């Protein structure tokens, strides 16, 4: 005991006396920190500094303030935005025949192009003073999602000018002259924009683009001016084949010092009319059978004036920061909208199909294997919509939360892929026969497009989420890195010493609280609410402690090596991601008034996220290089073991019961799904309603077949006729049963083609 007291006194003296602390702790730690600090490229540094820290910072703190989460405004549409959805968007959807668009015309019809331009679909984010709609991020997201449930091609065509496009860049960074020149024509649809970033050798590593712009003198409009000689080769550029104005990213060089002393100015963005001499619109791509315009653009020795740089000459070298911040908006609006649309469509149509389709004399929705997949569709759809709302809501707060939007992009597109795969499994043969009545095929084909664009998912998960999150969201690491980069060593050490003390206390508190919560199963953890969801707040708070502590240990032990240990760091990124996804679910549940019908879906979504958090931690512990540290970490975060489980079968069955019943809840869960009475979605919905309205009569019919009153080998139509003959049902009942059965057969039918027709 006396030894322990002496050690405690020694530790107190070391940390309490500044000179002793500086010499024994801070100075050696500072030297080690600078040594193991991972080297950052200029593009990495700019990406790290761009954007905002938001709720992700709370989750990384180990002690998230749930009242802050609840205080964020509920994302809602204005009256003007709702009217646009109810009128212009509905009109557009009625004009779309996606089978013809994709399989026959390979393009939107001319009248659809005209409607999109004339009604401001390309001007959703452009301010009203320039003729745009000036809609919120949540409206932009909702419009794209609604369109995507009918036509992915149309949705992508609308979303690109409203995400990473010249409009977005001009709005945030353009000069007044550039805004007045371009925004009105973009708003009216007189100009169609595209933005060229990706090239043959530069995909996810956009910072490695070889395209160049060299400062030189040249002739423009009859006068000699200082400008740029551009050379570029870009591919995968959406709308490039039809664009009239090209946003271009390139590396800018000034070898002759015409602008100053710097020879390499960095990535720069410029705006160029596509009819400018030397600009070449190249070949068209055909991305997985989707008909949206996508292709190549080239330019060789193209001279442009300096004032075509976005932001003018002051924008030279600022392109990478512009792109990172605008890509963040795109990840937070466009791709989440497409993924949420997948959930809405698949949930509504698959729940209907599970009731309408029969095998072995019963609806396939009664088979537990189908219920497992259908419940996953329902639970993930609730989570997808929750994440869409909260992430777009952050952008409407005038934030650019780069880590949050990377989480949304990666996990929502992956959840969308899971939902679509489950929907295809349940639809089986109907899902794979392409035709006008197949509402899944084109979405299935297009899933990898979302997975690939705006930063490939592998890159997003393995480098961006944790790579940025660990530094940006951590309360001390970025400040410590800034201290390490200071030129004045004495001032740097003083700053680092102050941060180190706070950092040590931060880590110690998180370690102790993670251990205590683990021993008590989070019984004493805080929750802002009572009732069914209180335990989830407590468990998520506990996992936040575990993440903060594990991250500190990983950075201390691995240092700069953690940057290259992608499998290790990505698992910590998964923990952060699922903390965010679960937070979105809880936020939506509160915003929508704690609807009791939502509870099974809330429970499913959060329990699945907790399970994934547990799996991520298990993988992190198992593969951590130092076995001693591994043992300690695991015992602190999960002292009684990892008990998180997948959602129960009982919960899955409860979800299926909700999804296969028409009514308010099913409509709320799938409210963005466009049901077209002239297409397969309308056929399926009508069959679902008819079968539900006659379900009691069909059950009696099946009972009579089982007990021998009717021939058990008769098909449904014959059984109905037999029941009529035996006067078991009235003529009116017989008409309703035949009508429902005909709708059922029409709904499960697939498209057929005559020989040679294709």
TrEMBL record:
<keyword id="KW-0560">Oxidoreductase</keyword>
<dbReference type="GO" id="GO:0050660">
    <property type="term" value="F:flavin adenine dinucleotide binding"/>
</dbReference>
<dbReference type="GO" id="GO:0033539">
    <property type="term" value="P:fatty acid beta-oxidation using acyl-CoA dehydrogenase"/>
</dbReference>
<feature type="domain" description="Acyl-CoA dehydrogenase/oxidase N-terminal">
    <location>
        <begin position="81"/>
        <end position="190"/>
    </location>
</feature>
<dbReference type="InterPro" id="IPR006091">
    <property type="entry name" value="Acyl-CoA_Oxase/DH_mid-dom"/>
</dbReference>
<dbReference type="InterPro" id="IPR015396">
    <property type="entry name" value="FadE_C"/>
</dbReference>
<dbReference type="GO" id="GO:0070991">
    <property type="term" value="F:medium-chain fatty acyl-CoA dehydrogenase activity"/>
</dbReference>
<dbReference type="Pfam" id="PF02771">
    <property type="entry name" value="Acyl-CoA_dh_N"/>
</dbReference>
<dbReference type="GO" id="GO:0004466">
    <property type="term" value="F:long-chain fatty acyl-CoA dehydrogenase activity"/>
</dbReference>
<dbReference type="Pfam" id="PF09317">
    <property type="entry name" value="ACDH_C"/>
</dbReference>
<dbReference type="InterPro" id="IPR009075">
    <property type="entry name" value="AcylCo_DH/oxidase_C"/>
</dbReference>
<feature type="domain" description="Acyl-CoA oxidase/dehydrogenase middle">
    <location>
        <begin position="194"/>
        <end position="292"/>
    </location>
</feature>
<dbReference type="InterPro" id="IPR037069">
    <property type="entry name" value="AcylCoA_DH/ox_N_sf"/>
</dbReference>
<feature type="domain" description="Acyl-CoA dehydrogenase C-terminal bacterial-type">
    <location>
        <begin position="471"/>
        <end position="753"/>
    </location>
</feature>
<feature type="domain" description="Acyl-CoA dehydrogenase/oxidase C-terminal">
    <location>
        <begin position="317"/>
        <end position="462"/>
    </location>
</feature>
<comment type="pathway">
    <text>Lipid metabolism; fatty acid beta-oxidation.</text>
</comment>
<dbReference type="GO" id="GO:0005737">
    <property type="term" value="C:cytoplasm"/>
</dbReference>
<keyword id="KW-0285">Flavoprotein</keyword>
<dbReference type="Pfam" id="PF00441">
    <property type="entry name" value="Acyl-CoA_dh_1"/>
</dbReference>
<protein>
    <recommendedName>
        <fullName>Acyl-coenzyme A dehydrogenase</fullName>
        <ecNumber>1.3.8.7</ecNumber>
        <ecNumber>1.3.8.8</ecNumber>
    </recommendedName>
</protein>
<keyword id="KW-0276">Fatty acid metabolism</keyword>
<dbReference type="InterPro" id="IPR046373">
    <property type="entry name" value="Acyl-CoA_Oxase/DH_mid-dom_sf"/>
</dbReference>
<keyword id="KW-0443">Lipid metabolism</keyword>
<keyword id="KW-0274">FAD</keyword>
<dbReference type="InterPro" id="IPR009100">
    <property type="entry name" value="AcylCoA_DH/oxidase_NM_dom_sf"/>
</dbReference>
<dbReference type="InterPro" id="IPR036250">
    <property type="entry name" value="AcylCo_DH-like_C"/>
</dbReference>
<dbReference type="Pfam" id="PF02770">
    <property type="entry name" value="Acyl-CoA_dh_M"/>
</dbReference>
<dbReference type="InterPro" id="IPR050741">
    <property type="entry name" value="Acyl-CoA_dehydrogenase"/>
</dbReference>
<comment type="similarity">
    <text>Belongs to the acyl-CoA dehydrogenase family.</text>
</comment>
<dbReference type="InterPro" id="IPR013786">
    <property type="entry name" value="AcylCoA_DH/ox_N"/>
</dbReference>
